[in-house]
Specification:
The structure holds two protein chains of two kinds.
Chain A (H helix, E strand, L loop, with lengths): L2 H7 L5 E5 L26 H14 L3 E5 L9 H11 L2 E5 L6 H7 L7 E6 L5 H8 L3 H14 L3 E8 L7 H13 L7 E5 L4 H5 L16 E3 L2 E3 L7 E2 L2 E2 L4 E3 L6 H12 L13
Parallel strand pairs in A: 1-2, 1-7, 2-3, 3-4, 4-5, 5-6
Antiparallel strand pairs in A: 7-8, 8-11, 9-10
Chain B lengths: L35 H6 L3 H15 L6 H14 L3 H14 L3 H7 L5 H4 L3 H15 L6 H10 L2 H23 L6 H10 L3
Helix pairs in contact in B: 3-4, 3-7, 3-9, 4-10, 7-8, 7-9
The structure holds iron/sulfur cluster.
Chain lengths: 277, 193
């Protein structure tokens, strides 16, 4: 089956993910990539991402995702996302703390494109939110979200929890009231479990996720192509390779076809219930 | 790290089974450590899934018998001073039926003439020596002797076995891959360490 046909049939995820970089201004307790300000940037590069994006569209992929690290600490991110959004619908995962006035002006053109910025917000109480994600995170997020919404930019809120099913309904309602008050409707609020990889594994948090539980979504990083955006995790400073598909990322057809072979040979009975967006 | 005995660590980490990329997993054994060759190639799964079947096909069972192939591989590896391949293929050579004296001769520890009585096998070893160490085409005298003992398909295959072994010799030696603990134990028991 061709890549395009396998995307159409649902065998392969339609979104191509790009790990733009690995460094971050935060140091969250459950971070999959052990990101922090001092870690190596391992940027994929703007031109590389745009070139692979063009190939992806030709191959039949239907959407893009950008994650990291924190994408928006890269100077060129607004321009890069504009370029991707001009090709296909694009979601950028962000911690929402890098939107100063200059950055807000730079992202304004994204309002005219099929682009969503997916921002993390875990708890309606600042202290509890910031316990996992670092000081001032809550304040910066609740300031940034309405400013993005005002500018017409699509915003989603992503809530990452140890056990989404065990959340106190009252607390859940307060969180939903909060995101609604920031201008983000219920359909753009995503709740997902912490994945037991990276720093979450070190801190003994989250649910286990092997390739049986994950959707095959082609994910490109500076270290190669992976099976899922949950694949290129880092623990103890070492990149996990259990979900590595290939070191080759160009031409994109190569990792795409390798991923398709893997997807087609998955054992029966797999449960792909975990998604990143 | 794959369990293997070595005085100095390999120059690249050996990929453990729980870190084996999806396409490399079929090449990792269900129990016990993968070979250092597999565990190092797992860093680049798209190469591994081509290289290991290639090596397995060229060095494994074909129309040429296992004994002949082990003569070629062990001799080439000894000429290249690749301890990983010499040790690994000393064990394989024992399994293929080569006598202890023949193994020692192929390893350069005794004379070839004394250990190998058959003219055909001596011609084969002369061919291997010249393919492995030479720079130009194989010389006339060695070619004539080889042609008396072998047909074109055999010459082609043997030459490719030497070439594949040279590649592995440099790969394993350059990256300082450790011989597996099981092989070292076997060689110690056989007195061929
Ligand atoms: S989880 Fe996201 S925001 Fe937190 S440290 Fe990791 S990359 Fe940064």
């Amino acid at each position: 089956m061709s890549v395009a046909a396998s995307i159409a049939s649902g065998t392969l995820g339609g979104r191509v993910w790009f790990y733009s970089n690995y460094h971050c201004n935060l140091r969250c307790a459950y971070c999959l990539t052990e990101s922090a300000p001092e870690v190596s940037r391992r940027e994929l590069g703007k031109e590389e991402i745009l070139a692979r994006g063009r190939e992806a569209r030709e191959l039949g992929f239907t959407a893009f995702g950008v994650t990291g690290g924190e994408p928006f600490i890269l100077e060129y991110m607004p321009e890069l996302v504009s370029g991707l959004g001009a090709e296909l619908p694009t979601v950028v995962l962000s911690n929402g703390t890098a939107f100063n006035e200059r950055r807000l002006r730079e992202v304004e053109p994204l309002a005219d494109l099929p682009v969503h910025v997916q921002i993390s917000l875990d708890h309606p109480d600042p202290d509890e939110n910031d316990e996992m994600r670092g000081p001032e995170n809550f304040r910066k997020v609740v300031e940034a979200v309405p400013k993005l919404v005002e500018r017409g930019i699509g915003v989603r809120i992503a809530t990452t929890l140890e056990d989404p099913d065990a959340v106190d309904p009252e607390e859940r309602e307060r969180l939903c009231e909060l995101h609604r008050s920031l201008g983000v409707p219920d359909e753009d609020h995503i709740v997902r479990p912490i994945i037991n990889r990276g720093r979450a594994m070190t801190n003994e948090m989250g649910v286990l996720a092997g390739y049986e539980q994950l959707d095959p979504e082609l994910t490109l990083t500076a270290d190669g192509a992976f099976y899922s955006p949950f694949g290129p995790t880092v623990r103890g400073g070492r990149l996990d390779t259990d979900l590595l598909v290939s070191r080759t990322t160009s031409p994109l057809r190569e990792p795409a076809e390798a991923l398709l072979r893997i997807a087609e040979s998955r054992p029966p009975g797999h449960d792909t219930s975990i998604g990143i967006n | 790290m794959t369990q293997a005995a070595a005085s100095a660590p390999s120059l690249v980490p050996l990929v453990e089974a729980d870190q084996a990329p999806i396409l490399a997993r079929p090449y990792f054994p269900a129990a016990g450590p993968a070979s250092p060759l597999t565990a190092s190639l797992a860093h680049v799964p798209e190469i591994l899934e081509v290289a290991l079947p290639f090596v397995g096909r060229v060095l494994g069972p074909t129309a040429l018998d296992a004994r002949t192939k082990e003569i070629v591989v062990l001799r080439t590896s000894a000429l290249m001073e690749c301890s990983y391949c010499v040790q690994t293929h000393t064990a394989a050579a024992l399994d293929s039926g080569l006598a202890r004296a023949q193994i020692e001769a192929l390893r350069g520890e005794a004379g070839i003439e004394e250990a190998f009585a058959a003219a055909g096998e001596r011609a084969l070893i002369a061919w291997v020596d010249e393919v492995a160490l030479g720079r130009g085409a194989v010389g006339e005298e060695v070619t004539v002797r080889a042609r008396e003992a072998m047909g074109d398909p055999e010459l082609v295959e043997l030459t490719l076995v030497v070439g594949a072994t040279l590649m592995l010799n440099r790969y394993c030696t350059a990256l300082r891959l450790p011989t597996s603990a099981a092989t070292l134990l076997r060689l110690a028991e056989e007195g061929l360490a």
